[in-house]
Design a protein that fits this description.
Number of strands: 10
Structural class: alpha+beta
Oligomer: single chain
Distance between the termini: 62 Å
Number of helices: 13
Radius of gyration: 25 Å
């Protein structure tokens, strides 16, 4: 961003009018287009709540449209990425306009478009994260932070007066917003599994932080590059270690059951059990039944981790294929239990990178 001051409507109008009066633009088709664009931008600037509302509605709409396997949701996701591409190419576009028409992008307009992109991205991604978050885990912190970031994006005095004036904080906000969007877009548009999506999104976030770190470090040049690389490696390692706090945005449980019987023809469980006698458990074994929703075309490996009093006793892998609105129905059966299985049990449903999708609980008496 070229200037971090609060962009009032009057400042935006003045900035755009300066560009309109640049040599060679008066009376041209470009000038007419700019006047129309000015009207639209100023109208939106005077109704800031509309942007956030549109972002949230588009996110919820995409979330619901994925249920019906419609391509509109993917088109919305691609549109979000296009907005980020414009931000990335801002300086290139600015120089191109300067060479071609004699004026660059107005600073107030750049600030406004940056805020618009943050609002759209965060409100688009939030419905996916809210649906996939395990709220009794650290994932609640990440999703709560995204919600707070979305709120900040619509409060101009906070966004421009507090956030945008602190470069490190703003760039961290900027990178995290893009990271969250990519975690939704990669599985939704490209059918990239959760593990690869997280790795790609993290790699892009680290790469985009390179210019920031380079500009912020003022140590002697001969080892400045080594320090930047070390910080990038540390940032990537921290992001990877923190993945357990990040929900797998496009995976969620739609039905779960701990049961002693599964109808394989109907792919449906019998009544779900909250507790079971030790004798029955040892004689019959137990099923962990899960229906997991994933986008159409996405194939995921998930793991059922059986825990007894917090200790892992078994890990069973299975594969999930996206496409059903009700979720892909799969189950694992465990027949080998400790001699004394009494106590609290959990079956944790994890993505391939060990991120939590959900948890089933029961007790053996």
């Amino acid at each position: 961003m070229k200037d971090e001051s609060y962009p009032t409507t009057e400042a935006l109008v003045a900035s755009l009018q300066e560009t309109e009066s640049a040599p060679g633009t008066s009376g041209s088709r470009l000038a007419r287009l700019k006047r129309r664009g000015l009207c639209v931008v100023v109208w939106l600037r005077r109704h800031p709540g509309l942007i956030a509302t549109f972002g949230f509605v588009s996110g919820v709409s995409s979330f619901l449209l994925v249920e019906r396997h419609e391509g509109v949701a993917r088109a919305m996701a691609v549109a979000m990425l296009a907005g980020w591409l414009l931000l990335v190419l801002e300086r290139v576009l600015d120089r191109a306009l300067e060479r071609r028409f004699g004026f660059g992008l107005p600073p107030a307009l750049v600030r406004y478009l940056t805020q618009f992109t943050h609002q759209e991205s965060l409100f688009f991604a939030l419905p996916f994260f809210f649906a996939s978050t395990s709220w009794n885990s650290g994932q609640a912190v990440f999703t709560g932070a995204l919600g707070l970031m979305a709120l900040v994006a619509i409060l101009d005095p906070v966004y421009f007066g507090r956030l945008a004036t602190r470069r490190w904080l703003f760039l961290g906000y900027h990178t995290l917003a893009l990271f969250a969007l990519l975690l939704v877009v990669f599985p939704l548009v490209l059918q990239v599994p959760a593990l690869a999506s997280y790795q790609l999104a993290l790699a892009l976030a680290v790469v985009l932080s390179f210019p920031t770190l380079t500009g912020a470090i003022s140590v002697p040049r001969w080892w400045r590059g080594l320090l930047v690389l070390a910080l990038l490696a540390a940032l990537g390692a921290a992001g990877w270690l923190a993945r357990l706090w990040v929900p797998p945005a496009t995976l969620r449980l739609t039905q779960v059951a701990v049961t002693s019987v599964v109808d394989e023809a109907q792919r449906a469980p019998a009544a779900s059990l909250r507790q079971i006698e030790a004798g029955q458990l040892l004689a019959e074994g137990l099923y962990a039944y899960t229906a997991i929703h994933a986008p159409l075309g996405l194939s995921e490996k998930v793991v059922h981790v059986w825990r007894h009093e917090g200790r892992v006793v078994d890990r069973i892998e299975l594969e999930v294929n996206g496409g059903r609105a009700e979720g892909y129905r799969a189950w694992t059966r465990k027949r080998n239990f400790p001699d004394d299985p009494r106590g609290r049990w959990q079956v944790q449903v994890l993505a391939a990178d060990d991120r939590m999708i959900g948890t089933l609980r029961f007790r053996v008496e």
